[in-house]
Design a protein that fits this description.
Radius of gyration: 22 Å
Number of helices: 8
Distance between the termini: 73 Å
Number of strands: 0
Order of helices and strands: HHHHHHHH
Structural class: mainly alpha
């Protein structure tokens, strides 16, 4: 009888250990799936320390996960589409000014959709990363380009990559692509 009790106890301890280890892995894998490239960027920023990166990402989810994106005011969508087209046209003659305007436009659009104010870029991108992890890096690149880092080609690439966040924020729902005009113009930074 005592042998059976010992076997049952060992099996229960082994099962508990299995589920505890699996639970930790699922949290990491869950964060990795949710954040995609943002997960890798955060791990790299923490010099490979996955626990620190996962703690940071879990905190972002805690702070911003319940954020509900607000609908845009009537007519705002068309205004944003027009302003983005102007940014793209301006890039041909004045790349730096176009990138500055794109940065401000993305900050305002994110704010209008209910994300934290663009006055705190880090807080705004943290919130955006919880909801739009696949697209937020383009916004970071535009913001970096505004600070004078990189040449014309880097600014052009940043503007192109930031268009993904613009489109997803402009969409009626996160999974619905925005209906914006996407013409390619030779020499321009259109996306």
């Amino acid at each position: 009888m005592t042998t059976v009790v010992i076997i049952v106890a060992v099996v229960l301890v082994a099962a508990l250990a299995f589920f505890l280890v699996r639970g930790r892995q699922t949290g990491g894998r869950g964060l990795q799936r949710r954040f995609g490239p943002e997960y890798e960027r955060t791990v790299a920023r923490h010099e490979g320390d996955t626990k620190a990166a996962e703690h940071e990402l879990a905190e972002r989810v805690k702070l911003h996960g319940s954020l509900s994106e607000q609908p845009l005011a009537p007519g705002a969508r068309e205004t944003y589409v027009r302003r983005w087209a102007e940014v793209q046209e301006k890039f041909i003659d004045s790349p730096r000014d176009a990138v500055v305007e794109a940065d401000a436009l993305l900050a305002q659009l994110a704010h209008d959709r209910g994300f934290p104010d663009g006055g705190s870029f880090e807080e705004q991108t943290a919130a955006l990363s919880v909801h739009h992890a696949e697209q937020v890096d383009g916004y970071r690149k535009v913001h970096t380009a505004v600070r004078g880092q990189g040449g014309t080609e880097e600014m052009r690439q940043a503007l192109i990559e930031s268009r993904a966040l613009f489109d997803v924020l402009l969409a009626d729902a996160p999974d619905e692509p925005a209906r914006t005009d996407r013409h390619e113009t030779k020499g321009s930074a259109t996306a």
